[in-house]
């Protein structure tokens, strides 16, 4: 099939797109045992082997500084859409992810950690939702041995359905690349032994503010 034919078929199909309406519904059948979504998120995120740090808007920089110090992080990759200004972090070199991979290839192999902004948390699964963008490329949460995620406590959703609806509402369209991260990357494919860091970070921390 020629390129012209394919494009013509797409063009013909697009004129019918607005005629279709998809109504979805969801029933949350899970029995929520915790009193609040925050408590539930912390419980399950901890079960997923992530470190959870309960902070506040006033203390988030202080707690982030402690994380950097305790992990002895000297070089950190940063998404450029963070909700807080981290330029004043001490004893760490910040590498904003604002250049192409080809331009920063050597630096990427040397970073010890990365920091990204979670767009939402899912309480009943203990996972965070991250939307890939120019400001926060997908690689930012995957390439470093240690990934630090910032999460606004008001953006914790009860379940995955509510989380997806929230992410869709951010721009009135569902992003094409969404990551749901449950904690450190791990697999047990080899001799049924759990190994961390095979497909992503060996350690993750979620700082809730």
Write the layout of secondary structure elements.
Blueprint: H1 3-14, H2 37-47, E1 51-54, H3 60-70, E2 75-78, E3 93-96, H4 101-108, E4 113-117, E5 120-122, E6 127-131, E7 146-151, E8 156-157, H5 160-171, E9 178-181, E10 186-187, E11 195-196, E12 203-208
Poorly predicted ranges: none
CATH C-level category: Alpha Beta
Report the average pLDDT across residues: 91
- What best-fitting shape do the alpha-carbon axes yield? globular
- Write the CATH fold name: Rossmann fold
Rg over C-alpha atoms, rounded to the nearest angstrom: 20 Å
First-to-last CA distance? 53 Å
Quick structural summary:
With 209 residues, this protein is α/β, with parallel strands linked by helices.
Describe the model.
There is one protein chain. This protein is an alpha/beta fold and 209 residues long. The protein has a single domain (36-208), classed as NagB/RpiA/CoA transferase-like (Rossmann fold, 3-Layer(aba) Sandwich). The protein is built from 5 helices and 12 strands. The chain has helices spanning 3-14, 37-47, 60-70, 101-108, 160-171, and strands at 51-54, 75-78, 93-96, 113-117, 120-122, 127-131, 146-151, 156-157, 178-181, 186-187, 195-196, 203-208. The strands form 3 sheets. Strands 1-12-7-4-2-3 form a 6-stranded parallel beta sheet, with helices on both faces. A 4-stranded mixed beta sheet has the order 8-5-6-9. A hairpin with a 7-residue loop joins strand 10 (186-187) and strand 11 (195-196). The mean pLDDT is 91.
């Amino acid at each position: 099939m020629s390129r012209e034919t394919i494009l013509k078929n797409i063009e013909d199909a697009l004129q019918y797109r607005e005629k279709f309406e998809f109504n979805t519904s969801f029933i949350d059948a899970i029995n929520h045992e915790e009193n609040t979504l925050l408590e539930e998120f912390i419980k399950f995120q901890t079960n997923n082997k992530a470190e959870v740090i309960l902070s506040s808007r006033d203390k988030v920089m202080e707690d982030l500084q402690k994380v950097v110090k305790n992990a002895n992080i000297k070089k950190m990759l940063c998404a450029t859409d963070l909700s807080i200004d981290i330029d004043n972090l001490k004893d760490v070199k910040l590498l904003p992810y604002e250049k192409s991979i080809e331009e920063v290839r050597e630096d990427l192999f040397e970073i010890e950690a990365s920091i990204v902004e979670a767009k939402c948390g899912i309480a009943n699964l203990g996972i965070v939702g991250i939307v890939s963008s120019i400001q926060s490329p997908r690689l930012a949460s995957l390439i470093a041995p240690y990934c630090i995620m910032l999460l606004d406590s008001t953006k914790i959703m009860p379940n995955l359905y509510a989380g997806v609806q929230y992410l869709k509402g951010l721009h009135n369209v569902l992003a094409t690349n969404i990551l749901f991260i449950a904690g450190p990357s791990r697999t047990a494919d080899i001799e049924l032994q759990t190994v961390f860091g095979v497909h992503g970070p060996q350690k993750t921390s979620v700082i809730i503010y």
